[in-house]
Specification:
Elements (H helix, E strand, L loop, with lengths): L1 E8 L4 H9 L9 E10 L3 E9 L5 H13 L8 E7 L2 H7 L4
Antiparallel strand pairs: 1-3, 1-4, 2-3
């Protein structure tokens, strides 16, 4: 399964977000990070997407680690984020008794 984190922030906060990113501690071994991927939008500011692969047995630990990771950005003007768990089709089918 994966955890997808999306962030948005205004261009004037980009340096603060970048500094925060460079000061992040190393991820735990059970999290594999893809990204961050960034794009700019005149209407939504800067958007970032990060995908983390994690084994289901480590999901609780992963959510705590990622919550701590992104809480470090709180206080940066205009910064918003969301952390969402996404299941692959096999996991989703098992949740409804079809696998």
């Amino acid at each position: 399964m994966v955890i997808i984190v999306s962030m948005t922030f205004p261009p004037e906060s980009a340096k603060d977000v970048g500094k925060g990113f460079t000061k992040q501690p190393q991820l735990p071994d059970y999290l594999k990070m893809m990204g961050p991927y960034l794009r700019g939008s005149a209407f939504q500011g800067i958007q970032s997407l990060v995908i983390y692969e994690v084994d289901a047995s480590k999901m609780a630990d992963a959510l705590i680690a990622l919550g701590d990771r992104y809480a470090r950005y709180i206080g940066i003007p205009g910064f918003k984020y969301s952390i969402n768990v996404w299941y692959d089709v096999t996991e989703a089918l098992a949740m409804v008794g079809l696998a």
